[in-house]
Specification:
Elements (H helix, E strand, L loop, with lengths): L3 H6 L1 H10 L5 E5 L4 H8 L15 E7 L7 H10 L2 H11 L4 E2 L7 E15 L10 E10 L12 E5 L5 E4 L5 E6 L4 E5 L10 E11 L11 E2 L6 H20 L8
Antiparallel strand pairs: 1-8, 2-4, 3-10, 4-9, 4-10, 4-11, 5-8, 5-10, 6-7, 6-9
Helix pairs in contact: 2-5
Length: 256
């Protein structure tokens, strides 16, 4: 269960920290969840076989959105993260009228296996299947027991317009909340976890409802440096390629 009593008692401080963070609103909250329950959840994390649909822009990154069927600990986690109590806390901290996607589209377990990385990118803004849902927040709970700095996998943050940067370590039971906008670049460098260990997180996303789209819908936008010419060219072709694909095929991201 979420440590609501502590969070609610400190919500003013959390709000101030989130809103004043650089390079854009974000916060890292330690001891977010009951440690015993979260340990039981980690012990039931399966070996996931569905790769992320990021192609050349990530490596050995696997995802599973349909988590409730795995074990009771996952159903309890889902209930807590989609609860009205957590929604009220998120709304206070961020100052946004938001709710957590109950389907965990693109979320759930994220498992970065040997040598995993995720290139810097900006996420889609409007939900591919619900065009009035505007993606407002990424909410990431890290599950990395006995994590050390040298293992890497830090959540890297960068403002695409100002160039400001920061990063968040990913130890066990740390919740990272970050704003999602057209300038909120994020990703992680190639990991160096011990053999047999993966970079683990539980991802949920918060949305706002817009009566109509207030900006052009976009898919994931990648930031690739020109010193990687083939990947750079692919990043420029990515958005039109996804638009063409979407004309003929429905998104399958949530199928797993």
């Amino acid at each position: 269960m979420i440590n609501f009593d502590y969070l609610e008692a400190n919500k003013e401080k959390l709000r101030e920290e989130y809103l004043n963070a650089k390079p854009f609103p974000n916060i890292a909250i330690d001891n977010f969840y009951d440690e015993e329950k979260l340990t039981a959840l980690v012990n039931n994390v399966p070996d996931i076989e569905t790769k992320s649909a990021d192609y050349a822009f990530s490596k050995n990154k696997f995802e599973k959105s349909k988590i409730k069927e795995i074990a009771p600990e996952f159903e309890e986690f889902h209930t807590a993260m989609t609860s009205d109590r957590f929604k009220a806390l998120l709304q206070f901290i961020t100052g946004e009228d938001i709710f957590v996607d109950p389907e965990l589209y693109g979320g759930g377990i994220h498992q970065g296996k040997e040598g995993s990385f995720l290139d810097m990118h900006v996420d889609f803004n409007y939900h591919p299947l619900k065009p009035t849902w505007y993606r407002n927040l990424n909410i990431l709970l890290y599950l990395n027991k006995d994590w050390k700095e040298e293992y890497g996998g830090h959540l890297k943050l960068e403002h695409s317009e100002t160039g400001e940067k920061s990063e968040i370590g990913v130890p066990f039971n740390r919740l990272a909340i970050m704003q999602c906008r057209g300038y909120t670049l994020h990703g992680y460098d190639k990991i160096n976890f011990p053999p047999g260990r993966a970079r683990l997180s539980m991802a949920t996303y918060a949305f706002s409802i817009h009566e109509k789209q207030l900006e052009s819908a976009r898919t994931t936008k990648w930031k690739i440096e020109k010193d990687k010419p083939l990947k750079y060219i692919l990043s420029k072709l990515w958005i039109p390629a996804v638009k063409i694909k979407s004309m003929f095929f429905k998104s399958k991201t949530g199928d797993h």
